[in-house]
Structure formats: C-alpha cells, structure tokens
Design a protein that fits this description.
Number of helices of chain A: 12
Shape of chain A: globular
Radius of gyration of chain B: 23 Å
Largest interface: A-B, 76 and 76 residues
CATH class of the domain at 57-246 in chain B: Mainly Alpha
CATH superfamily of the domain at 57-246 in chain B: MetI-like
Number of strands of chain B: 2
Number of helices of chain B: 13
CATH class of chain A: Mainly Alpha
Distance between the termini of chain B: 35 Å
CATH architecture of chain A: Orthogonal Bundle
Strand content of chain B: under 5%
Helix content of chain B: over 70%
Number of strands of chain A: 0
Strand content of chain A: under 5%
Chains: A mainly alpha (278), B mainly alpha (279), C alpha/beta (379)
Order of helices and strands of chain B: HHEEHHHHHHHHHHH
CATH topology of chain A: MetI-like fold
Oligomer: heterotrimer
Largest sheet of chain B: 2 strands, antiparallel
C-alpha cells in the first residue's frame, strides 16, 4: 500500500498509535525524573530503578505474579485446548452450550465473578491465596484462549488429520504431528494472551488473595498513595521490558510455526508427508 | 468416549468455578444482611430487588450503558482505521505495527491507567498544550479529569487492542491483489473501503464490539481511578455494596440484574453475529 | 455466618491513614521504606528503653497478627519489640480500608489478633460481639494517654486523631473563608475546583455540621437534608478523593478542599499560600487506635505490645513517621518540632470545643448513613 495514496488512513493511524503510546512515554519519562513529585522534570536519574529492584515488596509481588501467571496460563491452555478439540466433533446442542459458556465468562463483569468465587471458596473452605487466584484467572482467561484456538480450528481442514490417519499414523501421532503443529500458533497466541491478562489482573487477585503475598498490581496500588511515584513508573517500565523480551521470544516461535499452517495446500501436504517420514 | 473425556477440564472449570459461584450470588440476592454484625440471613425476600429499582442506581445504569456504547463506537472507529491500515502493509511492517499496538499493554495496567491521571489533569501536559496553543485563557483549564470523558478515555485505551485484533484477523485474509484489481477497475480508495473492506471487516467488528462493549459495562477499576469518586459505573456500585457497606444481598441483587441485562444484550448480539457470518 | 473479609491490600480505595503517612514522608524526611510487611525476625534496630513494660511471668512465645494501614507504625517499633521479646513475632498485614464494615469483617475473620480501628468501628465490633476488651491493668502506659482520648476510646488503646476541616488558596478564591457556609456559597463560582473526601463519615459528618446538626446524628430528617445538600453541591465538585485530597491546593488546580488537618499541614510546607480553616460551625473528627479481636489466643501478648506502643519513645517514632496529631503528651520531647508545634494540629480550646468525634451510630444509623452515602455517590 502506498502511503501517499492513503494519507487519511495513514494520518489517522498515526494518531491512534500516538494515543496508545502517550501514557507509556509519560511512564518512561516519569521513571527517570529526579523530582519525586513528578510535577516537573528536573533531570534524569536511574535511582528509581535501583530502588524498585531492591524493594522487597516489589520483588515478592513480582515473583508471586509470575508464578500465578505461568500456572494460570498452563491451566487455561489445558482447558481451552481440550475443550476446543471436543467442540470440533461435538453435537450441535452441546456446542451451543459450550459457546454460551465461553462468552458468558467474557461478559460477566469481573467484579461480580470475583466476589462470587470468593463466596464459594469461603463456603467450601477452600483456602484463599495463590492457588485460589490461579483458579480464578484460569476460569476467565481460558475463555479468551478458547476463542483463539477455536478460531484457528475453524480455519483448519480436518482432511489433513484424516489423511494422516489413513497413512497409518496412530491417534497420538496424528495429534502431535498434525493437530498440535497446525494449532501451535494459536496455542502460543492463546497462551500469551492468558499470561498477559493474568499478569495485569487486579480485581480477581484483589478478592481472592486472602492474607498471602499480593501480586504485583496490588502491590503497586498500595504504593500509589499520593500519586504515581517515579519508582512505580520504573516498575512499570521494568515489567514492560521483561514482557517484551518474553513475548519476542515466543513470537519468534510463533512466526516460525506459523509457516506450517499458512501457505497453499500443496506445500502443506508435502510438509505433512515430510512429517511422516521423520 | 475418549472424545467426551476431552470436555472434562472445561466442565470442571466452568461448572464448579463459574456457574456454581454465580448460583450462590443468585441465592444471596434473596437474603438479608444485618449491617452491624454483617451476618447474612437467607430468608428468601425480594426486598433487595425492589430497593434497587427505586433508587438513583438506575441513573448509574444508564450512565454505564451510555459509556459502553460510546466507548465501543470509538473503539470501532479507531480500531477499524488502524486494523485496515495495518492489513494493507507488507508482512514485516504489519508485525512492527502490531508490536507497536501491543507493547504499551505490557506495561502494568495499574501504572498505565494511573498515568492518565497525570496526563489529563489540569496543569498536566494536555492542559499545558492547550494553553501554549492559545486555546485557553490563562486561568481556564480543560477540566478533563474525573469526568465521564476521562473514564471513557481510560476504557477506550484499555480495550482498543481487543477491537483491533479481531478486525485485523478478518481483514488480513484479503488478498492484496483484490485491492489492485479494484483500483484497476477504477474504484476510488474510499469506494473500495466501503464496498470491500467494511463488509469483510464486519465479523471482526461485531466480535470486537461484543468483547469490548459488554465487559465495559461492568468496568470497575477504571472508573475507580479516573472517575474521581463522583462518576460511578454499575461495577463500582456493586463493589461498594460488597466492600464498603458489607451488604452482600443487595450487592448480589444488583449483580444479578446486571448479568441478566448483559446476557440479553449478548444474546441479541450473538444472533446478529451468527447471521452476519452466514451472509 | 462466618464471612471472612476480602483484603484489599491497598489501592486507590485507600484511606486517609495511608495518605497521611505518605504525606508525612514527603514533608518529614523519613527513610522511604515502602510498605512495611514485617515478617519473622527483627531488623536489628535499637532496642527500646523498656521502662514500663514491667510484666511478671516467664518468657512468652507466639505470633500475633496485626491488621494495620500501610506504614501506620514507626519503622522501628516492631523490630524493637521483637528484639525485646525473643520468641514473639509480630506479623503485620496491611489493609488500606476505611469502612466500618470491612474492619468488623476483619475482626470476625479470626485472622487477626489486634486491629487498627476508630471509635465507630469499635462500637460496631462490640455490638457484633467480635471485640475483646483489654485489661488496662496490664497496660500501665495507658496512663500516659490524655484523659479525653482515653474516655473516647474505651476498649483498646487510642493512638491518634484527626480533624476534618478546610484547606484553601485565598489567592485563588479571592476572599477569606471561615465556615462551611462559605464553601457551599462559593461553590457555583469555583465550580470544578472543589474537592471533598471520599469517605462517608467525614463528608457526611462535615455536611451535617454545615447544616447545624451533630455529625453523629441518626435522625432521618437530618440525614435527608444532608443528602440534598451534598447532591446540590456535587455538580460543582471536582472529585471525591481519598488519595491526593489536598495535593491540588499546591499547584492551584484545587481552590478549596475538605481535608484532614495533617494533610493541609504537609501541603502547606510545599506551598505556604495554602491556608487551613477550622470552620465556625465545627468539625468532625476521628479518634483511632488498636483493639483486640475476640478470637485472639494471645491476649497477653497483645496487651504487652499495646503497652509497648504507648511508651513515649516508641510512640514518638510512630508520630514522626506519620505526622499525625497525637494523644500522648509526654512523648512531645521526642516528636519533631514541625509536628508538635504546628498550630493546625494542636488548635486552641475554643476550636476543640466545636470538634465532634465520631461515634458508633447504632444498627439503624449504620443502615441510614450507608443508604444516604450510596445515593449521593450514585447521583
């Protein structure tokens, strides 16, 4: 597309991207501001990063958040993948219920869900804390993961799997070499999304944490008494950089795996045959 | 039957950890609460529902609906623009732009939302810009913060990627050759957009509208941070009943009403979406 | 039914306490230690002078759990106490919540041994049967607390109080403010530049003062008038805030703030143009301290710790790091001048006579007030 021919679209897009980056720029600048009150920029310092890294609260919060995010991502993926695979061959009525449940989880306001789960856990005496938060996140995020994996499944030709079975592959092998391979980009995308949502979650974590160590977003909320401080900005930048690094790695895998599912049919078939010789 | 075993994790998770808690809330909504001892009595009364109907909560509900519609529309326009632009670029530029869209969201949600407080406040960068550009007198201020507008900005900002991605996925499938063919046949870019892009973007737009509009109604943290305690949305009212007042039955009744309303909206939107997919 | 509370560990939903301590940290140079979640083991700081913790009996062991606001304690207090009583651990869990409901739920939860609470929380907790009155004969340092505060806070130890008054910028407002009446009168002229506190007791209490009622009234007529007055002024308010309440006064984006005394005091240091007003109609105030939960299994340790907190040097540590108005006169020599000699924090008798401390409103009152507040917020 020639940008000169579409100036309006390009200009508007530039505005939108600027809008998306404005707070991030404010956060980055603020993280270096020598002035603790952030009222004016009085010179740069790396002091706040130092403080953030050495703040025990921030460290424990970050650790806790990572543990929760990884575990809930894995749980979400198990639920989403197994559910989507079942859904593919499920009878129509069951499918409708399944879809309804997926959308219901996205649509129910998080504050309602979190309170409801809190009540349930109390009633059945399931301890609040990190496992409770993991479950809470997984319930919600698995819905988004399901949507992504389902979308990919819809676009996939079951003929590939049938062909593989016809060629003599065991069901497990079919799954591993064909299904999983085709789905891999979606699985990675779904996992990344679940991970990101969990990392950032406030409401569910807030209600289900009990007296355990708070996840990072809640630690940050506790640090924001007056207003955002440079240290908090530093933590924000730090989280972003770390996540970018993580995601870049994952996206690299995604881009590679993506080449399996894309492209024209003949390329896919020959690759399929290649898998069967390997 | 191994096939149906696949459904087990989902069933466990949704039945036990999603439907059961909601059922509990439903039961609570018919109880009464002693606001001193904070003991809940399950007495089967509809008083909580009637209490809700006659109060100022309806105003808040309307405000939430308005905010949801407004922000969904804004996300739709902005999202479509950007998704279209991205889908027309070469693969490498596409990836770059997508990264540019996503990366701000890898800063903690709390930090980004609070940074809007700094950006929007009087004597903040936007206010100063308006003064520098001569749009405001020396004593006047933009007064953007702690209004429905600031909440709207916060919501659009947080939900925009959820709108961009589905639309992008829909548009990305379009073979660039089609655009060229259209141009060769004399179609202006605008006409191409209207006749070609919009219909193809529609499924993405609808999916995006569902994922944005419906949860936006129940937003809690964003109005809490950007609403200044003055402008509440339904989510805040419900949370206040649970947290500040400790009136679980009333909060539960409000929650049930909200969920039912959202389900109805969702039902109609899904029908619209499915019919759109068929055509 | 036993309902354990949700524990919001901090947030925009934060209390004046958290605000206070942060404000103090900016005005009063204190090590910025972040939130203090002291777990096992002390930090090896200076031991206390240990003068009046005389207590017969052998060495005690155990852990007591303290429910407190973030940073609402001297940074050295817990380590010093633990150093003095080896085998005893004080685990502090911080919750930044102000509503009585939340505090009472915390009492009920069985998770805490002693909790920070104000007089109305205490009243409600007592009524709910979840508060454990302490035995003052085991807390000799209670005698160091000024009499009027001991009376007000009868079942635990009081530690601090604060008044809700007005902070404003005369240069922006253009005239002198002396009463709540002035605020309501000037609201249309200064629309969008006025801030109220996002707390039911403080804002409604002040409004009731404006209307000439007691800030502890439960009369439906009075409360209805209060609701109307608040709904009337609400369009002119910039926001209801519980963090950053008076910060706008510093840069001038706020002209008038209903604010706590210490917050105005701290902001005044950043901008001397800010003035404090103790309104003519009177002020609402809170008195808070620590009380024990009925579920505690270590009442003796709790009482020991309470006694420790009231020792003048320890108590001063607390006051210096929070900047609050204080209740132990004999701690004054150890307290920073900027706090102990601040006229905002220690007003004269004439003003104090018009200060009304909050009290528990009773079962009906709690419901009435809650409904009014929810209606005001939703309007």
């Amino acid at each position: 597309m020639n940008i000169r021919r579409h100036p309006l679209s390009a200009a508007l897009s530039a505005v939108v991207i600027a809008f998306l980056w404005l707070p991030l720029v404010a956060v980055i600048i603020g993280s270096f501001d020598r002035n603790a009150l952030l009222t004016t920029f009085t010179g740069a310092t790396g002091h706040w990063y130092d403080q953030a890294v050495h703040d025990p609260n921030v460290r424990s919060g970050f650790e806790t958040t990572l543990i929760i995010a990884v575990c809930s991502m894995l749980l979400s993926l198990v639920v989403a993948l197994s559910g989507a695979l079942w859904w593919r061959r499920a009878p129509r009525r069951a499918r409708a219920i399944y879809d309804a449940l997926v959308y219901a989880r996205i649509v129910v306001p998080e504050v309602v869900f979190a309170t409801a789960l809190f009540f349930l856990f109390l009633k059945v005496h399931f301890a609040l804390g990190i496992p409770a938060i993991i479950v809470g996140h997984a319930v919600l995020n698995s819905a988004y993961s399901t949507l992504i994996i389902q979308a990919r499944l819809i676009g996939t030709d079951p003929a590939l799997e049938e062909a593989a079975a016809d060629l003599g592959a065991t069901p497990w092998r079919v799954f591993r070499r064909v299904t999983l391979a085709t789905l891999m980009p979606a699985i990675i995308a779904a996992g990344l999304l679940a991970f990101t949502f969990s990392l950032d979650d406030v409401v569910t974590s807030y209600f289900l944490q009990g007296t355990a160590q708070s996840p990072l977003p809640i630690v940050l909320l506790g640090m924001i008494r007056f207003r955002i401080t440079p240290e908090i900005n530093a933590v924000g930048v730090f989280v972003m950089v770390l996540t970018v690094a993580l995601m870049s790695g994952a996206v690299g895998v995604l881009a590679g795996a993506g080449r399996v599912g894309r492209g024209n049919r003949s390329r896919r078939r020959s690759r399929l045959l290649g898998l069967y010789q390997g | 039957m191994a096939h149906h075993g696949l459904a087990l994790p989902t069933v466990l998770v949704t039945a036990v950890c999603f439907l059961a808690p909601l059922a509990l809330i439903f039961v609570y909504s018919f109880g009464t609460d002693n606001l001193v001892t904070l003991n809940v009595d399950f007495g089967w009364t509809t008083s909580n529902y009637t209490a809700f109907a006659q109060s100022l909560y309806l105003d808040t509900l309307l405000r939430s609906v308005a905010l949801s519609l407004g922000t969904t529309a804004a996300c739709g326009v902005l999202g479509l623009t950007l998704a279209y632009f991205i889908s027309r670029q070469g693969p490498r530029t596409q990836r770059l732009l997508l990264a540019a869209v996503i990366i701000p969201f890898w800063t903690s949600f709390i930090v980004r939302t609070y940074s809007w407080v700094d950006v929007l406040q009087n004597d903040g960068p936007l206010d100063n810009l308006a003064h520098t550009l001569g749009l405001l007198g020396p004593r006047a201020h933009l007064d953007l913060l702690y209004t429905p507008f600031s909440i709207g900005i916060g919501i659009v900002y947080s939900y925009l990627p959820l709108m961009i991605l589905p639309i992008y996925v829909s548009l990305e499938r379009i073979d660039p050759a089609i655009y060229n063919a259209g141009a060769d046949l004399g179609a202006t870019p605008w006409r191409q957009f209207r006749r070609l892009v919009l219909p193809l973007a529609r499924p993405g737009l609808i999916a995006g509208s569902i994922i944005v509009g419906v949860p936006a109604m129940g937003e809690y943290v964003i109005p809490e941070i950007l609403g200044g305690g003055k402008t509440l949305m339904v989510g805040n009212i419900i949370a206040n009943q649970f947290q500040e007042t400790g009136n679980y039955p009333l909060g539960s009744a409000l929650a049930v009403v909200l969920i039912v309303a959202l389900m109805i909206v969702l039902f109609f939107m899904r029908r619209f979406q499915i019919s759109a997919e068929v055509t | 039914m036993e309902v354990r509370s949700a524990h919001p560990h901090g947030g925009g939903l934060i209390s004046r306490r958290a605000l206070l301590s942060r404000a103090a940290q900016l005005g009063v140079a204190v090590p910025a230690a972040g939130s203090l979640l002291a777990a096992c083991g002390g930090g090896g700081s200076s031991p206390s002078s240990g003068s009046s913790s005389a207590h017969a009996g052998g060495p005690k062991t155990g852990t007591i759990v303290l429910d407190n606001y973030p940073d609402w304690i001297g940074p050295k207090e817990i380590p010093a106490f633990e150093h003095l009583h080896s085998g005893v651990t004080v685990k502090q869990v911080t919750n930044a919540t102000s509503s009585s409901a939340q505090v009472v739920l915390n009492f009920k939860s069985g998770q805490y041994d002693l909790l920070l609470c104000d007089t109305s929380d205490v009243g409600q907790a007592l009524a709910a049967g979840v508060l454990q009155p302490v035995d003052f004969s085991r807390i000799p340092n209670i005698s160091k607390v000024a009499e009027k505060f001991r009376e007000g806070y009868s079942h635990g130890i009081p530690t601090d109080y604060g008044k809700v008054g007005i902070g404003y910028r005369p240069d922006i407002v253009g005239e002198k403010i002396t009463s709540w009446h002035d605020v309501w009168r000037l609201a249309p002229k200064l629309s969008g530049q006025i801030v109220f506190i996002d707390l039911e007791r403080d804002t409604m209490g002040s409004t009731l003062k404006y209307l000439g009622y007691s800030s502890n009234t439960t009369s439906p007529t009075a409360l209805d008038k209060c609701k109307q007055a608040l709904i009337q002024i609400k369009p002119h308010l910039k926001a209801f805030l519980n963090t950053n309440v008076g910060q706008g006064l510093v840069d001038g984006s706020t002209a008038i703030a209903m604010d706590w005394d210490y917050d105005v005091a701290v902001n005044q240091r950043s901008n001397p143009k800010i003035e404090w007003v103790a309104p003519e109609e009177g002020m609402h105030a809170y008195l808070e301290g620590f009380s024990a939960a009925k579920s505690t299994k270590h009442l003796d340790l709790v009482e020991e710790f309470m006694n420790f907190m009231l020792e003048p040097k320890q108590y001063a540590d607390f006051v210096n790091s929070t900047g609050t108005a204080y209740v132990v006169p004999s701690a004054a020599p150890f307290i920073k001048h900027s706090i102990s000699h601040n006229s905002i924090l220690e007003p004269d008798e004439a003003v104090l006579r018009k200060v009304e401390f909050d009290r528990y409103l009773g079962a009906k009152g709690v419901v009435l007030w809650a409904n009014v507040w929810q209606d005001v917020k939703a309007a």
